TrEMBL record, chain A:
Complex and partners: Heterotetramer of two alpha and two beta chains. Directly associated with ODBA in the E1 complex.
UniProt xrefs under SUPFAM superfamilies: Thiamin diphosphate-binding fold (THDP-binding), TK C-terminal domain-like
InterPro entries: THDP-binding, Transketo_C/PFOR_II, Transketolase-like_Pyr-bd, Transketolase_C
Domain of life, per lineage: Bacteria
Disordered: annotated span: 1-21
SMART domains, per the entry: Transket_pyr
Keywords of this entry: Oxidoreductase
Protein name: 3-methyl-2-oxobutanoate dehydrogenase (2-methylpropanoyl-transferring)
Gene Ontology terms describing biological process: branched-chain amino acid catabolic process; response to nutrient
Cofactor(s) listed in the protein's UniProt record: thiamine diphosphate
Enzyme Commission number: 1.2.4.4
Classification via PANTHER family: 2-OXOISOVALERATE DEHYDROGENASE SUBUNIT BETA, MITOCHONDRIAL, 2-OXOISOVALERATE DEHYDROGENASE SUBUNIT BETA-RELATED
Residue ranges annotated for the Transketolase-like pyrimidine-binding domain, each copy included: 26-201
Organism lineage: Bacteria, Thermotogati, Deinococcota, Deinococci, Deinococcales
UniProtKB/TrEMBL annotation, chain B:
Positions of transmembrane segments: none
Cofactor: thiamine diphosphate
Keywords: Oxidoreductase, Thiamine pyrophosphate
Identification of the protein by name: 2-oxoisovalerate dehydrogenase subunit alpha
SUPFAM superfamilies: Thiamin diphosphate-binding fold (THDP-binding)
Catalytic activity: N(6)-[(R)-lipoyl]-L-lysyl-[protein] + 3-methyl-2-oxobutanoate + H(+) = N(6)-[(R)-S(8)-2-methylpropanoyldihydrolipoyl]-L-lysyl-[protein] + CO2
Lineage, top ranks: Bacteria, Thermotogati, Deinococcota, Deinococci, Deinococcales
Keyword Protein biosynthesis listed: no
Amino acid sequence: MTATSSTGRQDTPQDTAPTAPETVTLTLIQAVTEALRGELRRDDRVVVFGEDVGARGGVFLATAGLQAEFGVRRVFDTPLAEAAIVGAAVGMAVRGLRPVAEIQFADYIGPGFDQLTSQAAKLRYRSGGQFSCPMVVRTPSGGGVKGGHHHSQSPEAYYCHTPGLKVVMPSTPYDAMGLLRTAIRGEDPVMFFEPKRLYRAAKGEVPTADFTVEFGRAAVRRTGTDLTIVGYGGVMPDAEKAADALAAEGVSVEVLDLRTLVPWDREAVLASVEKTGRAVLVSEAPRIGNFMGEVASRIGEEAFGSLLAPVMQVAGFDTPYPYAQDRVYLPGPARILNACVKALQY
Amino acid sequence: MLEAFPLMPDQIVSEDGQLQPGETVTHTPAELRALWEQMTLVREFDRKLVTLLRQGRTTFYAQASGMEATQVGIATGLRPGHDWVWGYYRDQGVALGLGMTLHEIVSQMLGSNSDLNKGRQMPHHAGSARCRFVSGSSSIASQLPPAVGMAMAQAYLGLDEVTVVTFGDGATSEGDWHAALNMAAVQGAPCLFICENNQWAISTPVTRQTRAESIHIKARAYGMPGYFVDGNDVLAVQRAVRTLADGIRAGSGPVLLECLTYRVGSHSNADADAEKSYRTRDEVNAWTSRDPIERLERFMARQGQEIGAQDRAQVVARIHRDVEDAVARAEASGQPDWRTMLEDVYADTPSHLRHAYEDLRQEYGSGGTK
C-alpha cells in the first residue's frame, strides 16, 4: 500500500499492514522507544542494555521508562565498555536471547569494533551456519547537534564494508519503528544507526498496530522524472528541501531514501536513474570510502547508458567532523541544490 | 586443596608421580587409563599433523604438545554437551575431549567438504554446535566478551550450564580481556575464565606480557577469586575445573583459573625455529622433563597400573591409524562446492549476494569445484 499525503509527499510503503487504522504522532526517538517497549512486551528473550540505559533511560532518553516497566533483569546498565557491551550481545544471542545493545554515540564504538567485525559479523559464516547471533546494536549517529568530532561522526561505511552485518539508518518515525522491529525479530546482527539530529526534529504518523518495514527496500519519498536524489538518515529533510526548491522551478525530482544500506535497494535506484537520467547521491559521511561510492559505482556499471549527466555526490568533507563549522560540514539544501543544478545543466 | 590466590600452583601429583601430602585420588583404574589415552591422543595427533604439514597437505599447524594435561583436564572437568566452551585456536585437546571427532577436526584443518564449518577458516578454528564448542575467531581475546554474554544468557534463562572461555597468556594483555572480566564480575555471570598459560605468545614471554607476578592474581582487581593450578597435572586441572564449575552452578559467580604449563613445540609452523630465535634449548629441555603424560604414567605405575612398552606402542599405532583414516576421509570428501562460499553470510540471501551467485554461475557453470 502506498499513500500520498496532502503535501504531495509519498509516504513509506507498508510492509506488513496494520490491522487497525489508528495512528499516533511520534518523534523519531519516541518511535524507537515504543518499538523497544513493544518488543520487550512481545518477546521475553528481548533484553535492552548499555551504558545509562536503565534508570536514566539513555543520554537521549531512547530507553526512558523501560526499566521501570520491565525491571532490571531485562533493561540494565553495564560497565562503560563498548567491547563488553557488543561482545556480550554476541554471546547472549548465541544462547538464545534477543539482545538490543545501546552504544551511547556511534563515535564510541571503537573498542567494540573487533567484536562487531571478528565475532558478530562472522560467527554464522565461520561456523558453516552452526551458530548465529541475532542481535541489534543501536546508536545515535551523525552531526548537526554541535557535538564536535567525537559526537557527530557517520561511521556506517566501516560496517557496510563488513559482510555479515546489516546496516540500517531510518529518517522517519515510521521507519525507525518498523525497521527496529525487523532488526530485533531478524536472525542477523544489525547495526542500527539513529540520526540524532532527527530524534526530535522528525515527527510523523505511526500506526498504533504492529507493522514492520522490510530491509533492502528504499522508500520513494516523492516521484519525479528529471533527476533522482538518493540519500539516507539525517540528510533526508535537506534533500527534500532541495527537491522543493527545484519543484518551484518546474523540475520534477524523485527522492529515494535508502533506509537500509546493507542490504540496499539496487533495483529501486537503478530503475529511478534509468527513468530520470540523473543521480545526486547525498550523505554526510566523509566522501572517501563513503557508502554512496558503491551506489555511484553500480549506477556507472549498470545504468551508464541512461545517464544524461555524471553522477554527483554531496558528502561530508574529508576532515574530522568540526565543531564550529557544524552546519558548513553537513550537506545542506544549498549544496544539494547546487549539485542538482550542475547535473541538470551538464 | 583448591584455595583462592595461592602462592604456588595447586598440585595433586608431584613431578615424579607421587601423590602430594593430604591428597587422595578416587579415580578408578579405567578413569586414569582414559585420561592417559586422551592425553596420548592429543600428543600423537600433534605428531601426525606436523607430518601432514611437512607433506604440504595442510597449511598451518599449532602444536599442543606439553599442554595435554591442561586441555584434557579442562574438557573432562566439564559436562560435555551441556556446558559451553569458547576456546582458542590451540585447543584441539579441549575439542577432542568435548567429543569432536578426529574426522571433524581434521576436516576443519584441511578446509574440506566434510568440515562442519564448510572450509571457511584456516586450520585450528574448529567448532561444533553438537559439542557446544563455539567456532573461534583468530583475533586474540575476542572470544571473552561473547562468553560473558553467553553466561549472562544462561543466568537469565535459569539454565544449569557453565560457560568456559579459554585463552593464552598473551590474551590477558588485550582490552577485551579486561572488559570481559570486569563485565562478568559486575553482572555475576556464571563464566569460568581459564588461562592456559604456556608462557609464550609467539616470541614474547609472559614476563613481557605483564609485570604482575601471575595471571590469576589479577582476578582480585575485578572482584572475583583467582585460582592457580599446575597445568601439567591433569588430575589437578580436572579437579579445579570440576570444583569451580560446580561452584558456579551453585551461584559463586565468575572465577579465573590459571593453568601453568608450557608449549614444548613452536607456536606454529611460522616459527619452527623457536629454539634458535627466541628461547633456549635448556628452557625447552627443562619443561620437556616435566612432561604431563609421563607424570601421569609415573603416578599410574605407583598405583600398580604400569603401562608397558607394547601397550603404549599399540595405543600409539591405533591413534596414528585413526588420524590417517580421518585425514583420508577428509581428503576424499573433496573441497566445498563454490556455491557454499556465498552461504551463511546472513540467515537469508540478500539481493547483492544473489547477484554475486549469478556472476559466479557464469564462470563456474553448473559444475562443482573448479
